[in-house]
TrEMBL record:
Gene Ontology annotations for the cellular component aspect, listed alphabetically: peroxisome
Keyword set, alphabetical order: FAD, Flavoprotein, Oxidoreductase
GO biological process: L-lysine catabolic process to acetyl-CoA via L-pipecolate
Gene3D superfamilies (UniProt xref): D-Amino Acid Oxidase, subunit A, domain 2, FAD/NAD(P)-binding domain
Broad EC category: oxidoreductase
Keyword Metal-binding: no
Gene this protein is translated from: PIPOX_1
Protein name stated in the entry: Peroxisomal sarcosine oxidase
Organism: Merluccius polli (Benguela hake)
Reaction(s) this enzyme catalyzes, per UniProt: L-pipecolate + O2 = L-1-piperideine-6-carboxylate + H2O2 + H(+); sarcosine + O2 + H2O = formaldehyde + glycine + H2O2
Classification via SUPFAM superfamilies: FAD-linked reductases, C-terminal domain, FAD/NAD(P)-binding domain
Cofactor: FAD
Residue intervals of the FAD dependent oxidoreductase domain: 8-361
């Protein structure tokens, strides 16, 4: 039953962040084991599904700046693996002139990101089939688009294996013993390595409980809704319809976002950037669909070309920190254990860069970016450290 083997590094969790971390470590010549509790591919965490938004439109400069490199790394992977992972569509950002919209616009301008500001009177010429709400303004982040998520996971895991990396799936980590050599116990064996990277998504606190740490992470179930186009293709990627982000609207307290129809022909993905709390292993017992009513009201008003009744509903999980910024840091006591967590519903697009940064932390190098917004220390009053 026990499979023993010594590695330079073990990565726990083969979602987008763990897969890119393992790939970076293998690229740097480290003997790396990527452990995953479920048989791959699976749809129980946060990285499954066909598509994600990639964009530079952010309210903090550091995310916009980091995305510069992330785009380059995505296209490197496309070349290495010989697959298309990104389609440029632009991101339509709509919202009241002041507030978050203005902050995003300023960030884009400050960082010289190509964008188009749409004057309300010419809005419908550029974006047909959408009613811009009264008092709303709009811009398009030209760099933005769609990432093919499932395909990206396959590609990065495949490249990792080509570099000699080992993926062991269907093995749940049940205990971790820190030390100069970290020991990792799973349902199928015992493994040891000099370094450990924990990228366990919404299961992070279960794993951290083995090593005396808890983070303030909230797990939310997100309903992923697809809506039928009345006129098939009118919001499609082929017809150059963009992704969109609706900020602050009367129907909704949180953002609403959408991606052009593509993966399921005739269906457009539009979701609410909020969900209901759940436990990671009890996702399907959380049945709250009140977000669907919010979306119906919004779509009726702003997207008249969609049938305001969900056609397909899928599920996904967010792991949210109090400030919605990531956790990228070393364990406060065991510095050969690195943690990547709390990607708060916006981490996919950063995957290749997160992998690089967690690899740098793991190798004891100075990270390529200032990671102070992502430190564990910022949760001082929240984190229950049992150390
Ligand atoms: C509906 C939805 C829409 C989103 N939209 C966007 C978007 O448009 N753009 C964007 O950039 N981001 C988006 N995100 C966010 C992005 O998808 C996540 O930030 C990202 O997938 C998080 O990846 P992860 O690797 O941290 O977690 P996960 O993908 O959950 O990976 C963690 C892995 O760890 C494994 N694991 C856990 N415990 C153990 C254990 N004990 N032993 C072994 N393995 C274990 C899990 O099974 C899992 O496979 C969205 C997320 C959702 C849910
Ligand atoms: O990360 C993103 O780009 C999207 C924005 C809307 C909410 C979900 N995540």
């Amino acid at each position: 039953m026990s499979t023993e083997g010594d590695y330079d590094c073990i990565v726990i969790g083969a979602g987008v962040q763990g897969s890119f971390s393992a790939y970076e470590l293998a690229k740097r010549g480290r003997r790396t084991l990527l452990l995953e509790q479920f048989v791959l591919p699976h749809s129980r965490g946060s990285s499954h599904g066909q598509t994600r938004i990639i964009r530079k439109a952010y309210d903090q400069d550091y995310y916009t700046v980091m995305m510069d490199e992330s785009y380059r790394l995505w296209s490197q992977l496309e070349e290495e693996a010989g697959v298309k992972l990104y389609r440029q569509t632009g991101l339509l950002v709509m919202g009241p002139e002041n507030g978050t919209y203005q902050v995003i616009k300023n960030t884009l301008q400050r960082n010289g990101v190509p964008m188009v500001i749409l004057q309300p009177e010419e809005f419908s010429k550029h974006i047909p089939h959408v009613n811009l709400a009264d008092g709303d303004v709009a811009l398009v982040d030209i760099t933005a688009g769609v990432l093919y998520a499932d395909r990206a996971l396959r590609a990065v895991q495949g490249q990792f294996q080509k570099l000699g990396g080992i993926i062991t799936d269907g093995q749940k980590v049940t205990d971790i013993r820190p030390g100069d050599l970290v020991t990792v116990m799973t349902s199928g064996g015992v493994y040891r390595a000099k370094n450990l990277v924990v990228t366990a998504g919404c299961w992070t606190n279960t794993l951290l409980s083995y090593i005396g740490l808890q983070l303030p992470l909230q797990v939310l179930k997100i309903n992923v809704y697809y809506w039928k186009e009345k006129d098939p293709g009118c919001y499609s990627l082929q017809n150059r319809f963009p992704c969109f982000l609706q900020i602050e609207c009367p129907e909704a307290e949180h953002h609403i976002y959408g991606l052009p129809s593509n993966e399921y022909p005739g269906l457009m993905k539009v979701c609410y950037h909020m969900g209901s709390e759940t436990k990671p292993d009890e996702r399907d017992r959380q049945m709250d669909k009140s977000d669907g009513d919010i979306l119906k009201r919004y779509l009726t008003r702003c997207f008249p070309g969609l049938v305001p009744e969900p056609a397909v509903v899928e599920s996904c999980l967010y792991t949210v920190t109090p400030d919605e910024h990531f956790v990228l840091d070393c364990h406060p006591v065991h510095n050969n254990i690195v943690i990547g967590a709390g990607f708060s519903g916006h981490g996919f697009k950063f995957g290749p860069l997160i992998g690089k940064l967690l690899c740098e932390l793991s190798l004891g190098e100075v990270p390529s970016y200032d990671l102070s917004p992502f430190r564990i220390r910022r949760f001082q009053e929240h984190s229950k450290s049992a150390l």
